[in-house]
Amino acid sequence: MTMCFADICQPLFSEACDSPLVSNLPQSAFRSSSQLSNSHGPGYAKLNRRDGAGGWSPLVSNKYQWLEIDLGERTEVTAVATQGRYGSSDWVNGYFLMFSDTGHNWRQYRQEDSIGAFSGNTNADSVVMHKFQQPVFTQFLRVLPLDWNPNGRVGLRLEAYGCRYKSDVVSFEGTSYLLFRTTGPSTRNLLSMNFKSRHNTGILMHVEGQHGQTLTLELLKGKLFLHLRKGTLQWRGTSGDFHTTASSGSLLDDQHWHRVTMEHLRGRVNFTVDKTTMLFFHKISFGGVPAVGSEHSRRNFHGCLENVLYNDVNVIEMARDQQLSIMGNVTFSCPETVAMPVTFASPESFLRLPWEAARDGLAVSLQLRTWNKVGLLVTFDLRHQAGTLWLYLSEAKLRLQIIKAGRVTADMAAGQSFSRVLVCNDGGCRNPFGVFQGCMRLIHRDNTLVDLIKVQQMVIGNFSDLQMDMCGIIDRCSPSHCEHGGKCTQAWSTFHCNCSSTGYAGATCHSSIYEPSCEAYKHQGNTSGFYHIDVDGSGPIKPQLIYCNMSGKCCTTHHRGRHSMNLKFSNTQHLAHFNYSADTEQLGALITQAEYCEQELSYHCKKSRLLNTPDGAPFTWWVGRLGEAHTYWGGALPSSQQCACGLQDDCAEPARFCNCDSDLDAWANDSGVLSHKDHLPVRLLAVGDINRPGSEAAYRVGPLQCYGDKDFWNAAYFNKETSYLHFPTFHGELSADISFFFKTSSSSGVFLENLGIKDFIRIELSSPTEIVFSFDVGNGPFEVRVETPMDLNDERWHHVRAERNVKEASLHVDHLPGARQKAPADGHIHLQLNSQLFVGGTASRQKGFLGCIRTLKLNGNTLDLEERANITPGVRPGCPGHCNTYGGLCQNQGHCVERHNGFTCDCSVSAYTGTFCHKEVSAYFRPGTSVTYVFRELSGNASTQSSYLYSDLSLRGENVSLSFSTSQTPALLLYVSSYHREYLAVFLNRNGQLDVKYKLQSNKEAEVFRSNTRNLANGQLHRVSIRRHAESLSVQVRQILPSCQMSDKSSELDPEIARLNSLGFTGCLSVVQFNAVAPLKAALLYPHTSTVTVSGTLTESNCGSSSSSSPYAAETTHSLLGKADPFGTVGTGEPVVNAISSDSALIGGVIAVVIFVILAALAIMARFLYRRKETCPTQEPKGVKSEDSPETLFSNDPNSQGVINDNQKEYFI
């Protein structure tokens, strides 16, 4: 059939459609499976009537009974009402409602595409009415009782409500079609029609436009496809073959009516099949779509169309009146081919038929449909004891086997994998091939059709748990409940979502597997690196790969354009486009969530004006995220048409607002950062004033860098049981996920609640060790519980994640095993709420929640608890006490400090730095470089920030730790001395072994203790810990596995400490700590402090960083006895105590009485390591060129943007 394109409109019913349809029907319009007596016949089943026995009752009350009503013609039915049998104990508690146009091939009415059963009566007299969500257009109705009064029997009176239905029908036999020409293009086009067919392929409609455009509506393998093609139409100077395809529906070749609507309006197309709507856009004008291509079937439609309306024009009525062309054999009726199906609905279903096979052979044929890949189809015994034939499905392929005496005598396979199969089950027979669930029709034995009506009447054969005269198969993947691109597959009673490679997880691929921000990763203890960020969680925005700098910026995203460009004289304007790996929606979400964002924008100029201030039109401008042009520069305010110098009043010319606007014949620059979040990032930069001789310019656009997560610490403190926050109704009809953190000292309380008329959703702390997630979507209250091994009311933050979807509900608490509950296979699925959402309290109970809730997210959207708490009595914004939970993230003696919106780690007493005191402070040393640290008394007004610069002078022991790598022997690592020539020295001897030399008393000789480790001057990183308390000394050496090696370089050993000092040190020192003092850290971070003296060049490096630690560690414990062997060693792990009788030892006695002690880390750095060539490239910062020419401003190397080092702090995604 070929006809003009149009879109679809739902019919609008202005008149009420609720008239009684049954009460005036004759008794001949009623049929039933059986009747108890003539007075219990189906003709007495009219609502509120007392004729006969007061209603219909079957002979036997079982699930195979039915009551059928013939309405006389196709009618619109909008409601149904039931009663029990008058004056009796007979009524129906629940039932199925079926409909059909022919009295065969019944179809079940379903609510919400899932609920099939209607609730019935609880007594004989009350009327229970159900109004349909969607009207039914049918001639026949059939009621199948499911349950009835256990103290009575099935008893029923019935009424249906609706109105007349106008039906114009046309039938096509596979070669015919109608040709309809439109009057001209229209800005809005509507098409609606109903169709039905038992053939799964054919073109329903085809449109051709004047410019090679076409549109095709095609039934293909039981699905409906809409093809749009632009053809070879010229489009904005280009030609191409634009093609869009959308599909909807499934199992549409079931000989039931299906409704199709399409609406085309200004490039937007709404495509609806039955109740499923798709919306998509295309860039073509109305009037056609491409000719049918090779991907189409090219087969005409074989079936019936009804009520075809194009822009309110009745196409079938025009065809009947011969106002359009009719090609082929077309009839204006819809002949029905009766093909009675049967459904095997459960594993217990079977059909057994008598069969005497013909002498010369046998023949079996049937049509089948199923979702299952395995199942027995047919089995019977062959004549003459030749064995048993088994016809079955295996991995969705058809197989036949003949088995005799346990041995396979024949084995055949046929066909490709089926997506739909019809099966009959054996039931009582042995079945080694699995049960079958599906539909079957047109079953033939020896070319004779099996009369399933007689089977239903028990005249021939027998059966169990079959649904006669209907195919009850359901496509649970159309529409698909799998979200975020999850692939849907199904069996007979359920579906499964494959979430691989989607970034989401769960039964419906609803919940993101990634964290919403760098801040969330950071507070799980993760270090800097690349992470996938899903800003809106289960929302539509896709995850993005971001570099997270845990020590500073939350995230960095780089553009793919050139960071910098040097420009010389040109007659044309220079345009630079910057595309980011994240799309506009992702960037917008990332920027909105961040507390602060910035992007560097620099312009260097020589006779090249920038904004042409104060009054001229700007020569250069840039475009932000939303496409608007901006004429302010980095460091200035939005809409100011100024640069940073104009804001600070220090431009080269006071009358100008930018340095470059002075138009000097010398290099100047205007640089700064853009920080107005609504305008970021820079998408395009236009540079204009480079068209004069001598004009030169250079620009730089840095990466987008954002800080913090304003949602992560968004919290509210509920200090009264009656206090709560309220928000708009939560909309999570099919999928709902809720996550939040809480901390409390209370034993119970409701976290949140939202109510509907009957439905609700609630999460509560039911006891100190149990959290309950409960809801009702119409199937009755449903609960998921998680019990924890520890109390949750411990004033620590705990994380709760709850999800509910059409398949299951789940609940997770912290990192404990979660709990899941399966949803009913055929229950209600829509969560319908209408009240406000209550947080921290409830409308249905008195006791609310006492404590803190933060980071509350519902379906990926964060609720602003602090904003609402500011205006709500009994609730305070924010919540203190984060260190109880996150204090453990502060490493290496770092101290957790509370903040209003989080916490920080105070690293002042640690030799480490960084967000969590995890970053090692390291430096390269070479000859000529030294660090001297002087201990001083800590005055009362000294700041705690500088506490690591000072030391308590009343010590009886010391803890010394440092890391080093070197190839030099001998080498002095650490030296501590006092006024009285008492000292501590840590050095490597000529053999590379670690020696610790103590002189505790000025009148005695020094003692040397040597660890029993191998050569440590091997270029690898080693960590040394020295601990002394009174008379006990412990030395531990641990090797840190390096990432690369260095070559050896040795020198002669001078036995005196002075000689070692004169040799200096070549290598790396890291995390040097003496008790609470970190001298190397002080020298690098605060080199101008009075306690620190640095000689030579001292450069911070990451030479002490290591990715893993070796398990090999050696610990030696020594005795500090005056008569001990000065070079004696003691076995590993052997503590010695009570060895010193005097308190005048080094540090313990001396520092208490002297003014200061000098700690000299006499180490010298040339490089981190002597690296193997091309194996470990240098990490020293490169020199900076002068700004005498544009070449020295920015590198034009196109590969330079991919080079990342410690000094750039710029990363790509």
UniProtKB/TrEMBL annotation:
User: What pairs make up the disulfide bonds?
Assistant: 852-879
* Xref: InterPro entries: ConA-like_dom_sf, EGF, FA58C, Fibrinogen-like_C, Fibrinogen_a/b/g_C_dom, Galactose-bd-like_sf, Laminin_G, Neurexin-related_CASP
Task: Give the bilayer topology.
Answer: Single-pass type I membrane protein
Q: Laminin G domain: which residues? A: 167-334, 714-879, 937-1103
EGF-like domain location, by residue?
Answer: 473-510, 880-918
Query: Which ranges carry the Fibrinogen C-terminal domain?
Result: 509-553
Give start and end of each F5/8 type C domain. 17-163
Q: Where is this region: Disordered?
A: 1177-1213
Q: Which residues cross the membrane?
A: 1145-1170
> Per its record, how is this protein called by name?
Contactin associated protein like 3
Against PANTHER family, the record matches this protein to: CONTACTIN-ASSOCIATED PROTEIN-LIKE 4, PIKACHURIN-LIKE PROTEIN
Taxonomic classification, please?
Answer: Eukaryota, Metazoa, Chordata, Craniata, Vertebrata
Question: Which GO cellular component term is one of those annotated?
Answer: membrane
What is the annotated localization of this protein?
Answer: Membrane
Compositionally skewed regions (Polar residues) per UniProt: 1192-1206
Q: Where would you say this protein principally sits, based on its record?
A: membrane
Q: Which SUPFAM superfamilies match?
A: Concanavalin A-like lectins/glucanases, EGF/Laminin, Fibrinogen C-terminal domain-like, Galactose-binding domain-like
Which keywords does this Swiss-Prot/TrEMBL entry list? Disulfide bond, EGF-like domain, Membrane, Repeat, Signal, Transmembrane, Transmembrane helix
Give the family per the record.
Belongs to the neurexin family.
